[in-house]
Amino acid sequence: MKIRAQFEKTFPVPAGIRWSDELDSYCIYDRALARHHSELIGYQSAWAGWHQSRATLVIRLPDTTLLQESAANGNVQAALRLEQQLRCREAIEAMGVSVLEPSDCFEL
Known about the structure:
Number of strands: 4
Distance between the termini: 32 Å
Number of domains: 2
Number of helices: 4
Helix content: 40-55%
Strand order of the largest sheet: 1-2
Strand content: 5-15%
Structural class: alpha+beta
Mean pLDDT: 87
């Protein structure tokens, strides 16, 4: 599920408002259904906060250097663990969340 779909599931789009790909923003499309312009402003602010929270969220996965070496030497369990981590990475990135490479990480 993409980041905007997650947001809309958590915060349903108010009546009379919709996403505009052209504007890359929410907009009022039916003034009869939209109660007030401030509703759009509030919803747009909620979207901006949600989007920013996802942009700053970063997941650090474990270093796989040893697993890669072990898998290259025929260790089936290591190869399975590498595949699992790849699937985790793909799922995390599909949610719009960044994943750090081990080389980008530092110990605290």
